[in-house]
Each structure stands twice: as structure tokens, then as C-alpha cells.
Design goal:
Layout lengths: L3 E3 L18 E3 L15 H16 L3
Antiparallel strand pairs: 1-2
Length: 61
């Protein structure tokens, strides 16, 4: 059993300096109820990723 998503995939363009929003429509084509969780990565993981990317960009020795 699965939900139908519209659009199937959300995409966000860099740079991530401005807040943006997108609409995701969920449809349950079955008669049984469905539970789901919406989450985002922890902020420490995002910050760590950006620090690593910045280090790679500036480390040309």
C-alpha cells in the first residue's frame, strides 16, 4: 500500500539563501488509513556538510 505523490519529487535550487516553498499533494487511493512522518535532516548534519564542502573548496594546497 502506498500514497500517490504529486509531484513525485521535490527539487530545490542553489544557492539556499532565500526561503522557498513548494506544494506536495498526497493521495491515499485505498480505503485503509495511512500514517506518515514528514521530517528534515538535523541541523548539525546540514552544518557539517556545508563545513566539509567549504573546506574542499578552499583547500587547494
Amino acid at each position: 500500500m502506498s500514497l500517490e505523490l504529486d509531484p513525485v519529487e521535490l527539487g530545490f535550487k542553489r544557492p539556499f539563501q532565500h526561503e522557498v516553498s513548494q506544494t506536495l499533494r498526497l493521495k491515499n487511493p485505498h480505503s485503509d488509513p495511512v500514517a506518515f512522518k514528514v521530517g528534515s535532516p538535523p541541523l548539525w548534519r546540514i552544518a557539517r556538510h556545508h563545513r566539509c564542502a567549504a573546506t574542499r573548496l578552499h583547500d587547494h594546497s
